Amino acid sequence: MPFEFYFFLSSAFILGAVIGSFLNVCIYRIPAGKSIVSPPSACPHCGHRIRWFQNIPILSYLFLGGKCASCYTRISLRYPAIEALTGLLFVLVLYYFSFSAATLVYWVFLAALVTITFIDLDHQIIPDVISLPGIVVGFICSFFIPWLSWSDSVLGIVVGGGTLLAIAWIYEKVAKREGMGGGDIKLLGMLGAFLGWKAVLPVIFIASLMGSLIGVPLMLLQKGDTKLAIPFGPFLAFAATVYLFWGRDLVFWYLSLLGN
Prior knowledge:
Layout: H1 3-29, H2 59-63, H3 78-97, H4 101-123, H5 128-141, H6 150-175, H7 182-195, H8 200-221, H9 233-259
Helix pairs in contact: 1-3, 1-4, 3-4, 4-5, 4-9, 5-6, 5-7, 6-7, 7-9, 8-9
């Protein structure tokens, strides 16, 4: 691999980390109904306005020892972790899709998934302000991705949202309680818009598998509480990310097992 490509991968990580810093703002402010543009970032404990050199992704956290420069309150490790995660995802996208329109599309897509994941973990909601515009953006972007036709995107929206809606309806009828929120349904519609209808079932399968592997032990720790609320959005986001990078390989592997 030429040196220039390593340079571009490093640049992608830096760009992703910067975007991740902005995503931290979105994750904190969107559920509170606050503007993501103003006011500038400040310490949530003492209100100290964060200067530009105190807001360098990852590095500022290390230089400040993980504490506010004013009140010395400890800063959550999650902030640099989200910056590093977004940077890593940007690198993977560039590595797999090189210099193409798809790279820009999937950078936007994964940034939205990171934001949705942590908002859902914190508040158990998936904001419509992300998922609904995401459906429209995913459809528009299908015109710029050679392997995703606009019809595949439309079918992805219908199949994605419709499948999860049907599952939610059946669960509610059987269990006599709501088991899946409307946010998950809209999110899967958005995933279908970006990935196409063929991704819907693998994404649901991977998300359900991961949800079971994590949810069952959590229920056991909660003394068998079957009503334990576990957000499904992060599992859908994880499954969509796995499918984006390795979906075709996983499908071919699975079909080869059936062939044997």
